[in-house]
């Protein structure tokens, strides 16, 4: 093989870096160069190109590929994901605090107490298995609307129902800014210590449909248990979405007993339903549709628009849950 330089463009958090290396250079040389440019350690770097992901090898015994063997070619564009050492330290600190709180809660639960039936927000479990804090990005436009969106998500009865059923606890629910991790719709850090959702449009001038964001939230909640997008994760993710749908179906006919149904999310008007169906790729309204028919079709359109495969491609959570993707 001739020794020629390969020039590639590496994009990290909206900033592009041009890197030139010999084609027979070990991949570790590229990781070291990227660490100098971005302050992200090689072990936390994830390179995405041509529809595949490549991470720094974890074991010294593993054979190290060259630039060419890794599939990198001259002129290729690569997206890099990862966290700096400083950011990782902050996440670990938050995770340690979260684990300490969980330990205290577990110890309290082991103490003898009267067993109570779960009846919604008044039960002990509803205070434990919930979103403990929400936080919009105050430097972005319309923070009050972002606060309202995150609050609605955090109090959605269907979401709280599955959180209590599966014992999910989330320390912080916040935004994923449009410029942060381009291409991702959600991120779970530290097995639920923090969940970030992309609630804004990429143009910063509006917000994504509620049902679309909520489906991403269910996807990220599944990462509280499973880090990788394996069969176990897919089964749990499908179960959560099914349970949310079943809960709301029961809520519509007034049969659910575990929560105050007045807060169940529904579009507030015919116009909002029509807009939601249009945005999510529905087939439009029919003249003889009732308002309930339109609401149901809006939910179905949301499901069709955001399938699990698309979510997996747009999710940065993978691997050990103490690290961000």
Could you walk me through the main structural features you see in this protein, from its secondary elements to its overall organization?
The chain is of the alpha/beta class and 325 residues long. The chain has helices at 27-38, 85-110, 124-128, 143-154, 157-166, 210-222, 231-252, 270-279, 291-305, 308-313; strands at 5-12, 15-22, 46-49, 52-55, 77-81, 134-135, 172-175, 186-189, 194-197. The chain has a five-stranded mixed beta sheet with strand order 2-1-5-3-4, covered by helices on one side. Strands 6-7-9-8 form a four-stranded mixed beta sheet, with helices on one face.
Keywords:
13% strand, four-stranded mixed sheet, 325 residues, alpha/beta, five-stranded mixed sheet
Please mark out the parts with pLDDT under 50 across 5 or more consecutive residues, or reply none: 114-123, 256-285, 320-325
Largest sheet: 5 strands, mixed
In percent terms, what proportion of residues is strand?
Answer: 5-15%
Number of strands: 9
Can you give the mean pLDDT?
Answer: 78
Shape: globular
Measured on Cα atoms, how large is the radius of gyration?
22 Å
Helix content: 40-55%
Topology (elements, then pairings):
Blueprint lengths: L4 E8 L2 E8 L4 H12 L7 E4 L2 E4 L21 E5 L3 H26 L13 H5 L5 E2 L7 H12 L2 H10 L5 E4 L10 E4 L4 E4 L12 H13 L8 H22 L17 H10 L11 H15 L2 H6 L12
Parallel strand pairs: 1-5, 6-7, 7-9
Antiparallel strand pairs: 1-2, 3-4, 3-5, 8-9
